[in-house]
Amino acid sequence: xxxxxxxxxxxxxxxxxxxxxxxxxxxxxxxxxxxxxxxxxxxxxxxxxxxxxxxxxxxxxxxxxxxxxxxxxxxxxxxxxxxxxxxxxxxxxxxxxxxxxxxxxxxx
Length: 108
What we know:
By secondary structure, the protein is mostly helical. It has helices at residues 10-30, 34-59, 65-95. It is built from three helices and no strands. The N and C termini lie far apart (61 Å).
């Protein structure tokens, strides 16, 4: 049984990944809200995961090296979101805002 994505060229995955990464970079650079910045970082991590899986499938379909790295990226992203949301909630409770521009230092 042939894989479904074997007929799709690698360039399609790379274009999708590049577009997601560019949207994430734009979100990090232009947003003020910390939650939206975190969502943009998640978009960039998902773009990297798509690249890892695409290159893993197209270069060595019998090895799972890219997929293993993708699982690590997903685990790191989950930990990053948990810690960052804790920090953002604490800053919001103390300062009353979640804007990145207004919170310049983390000491109180």
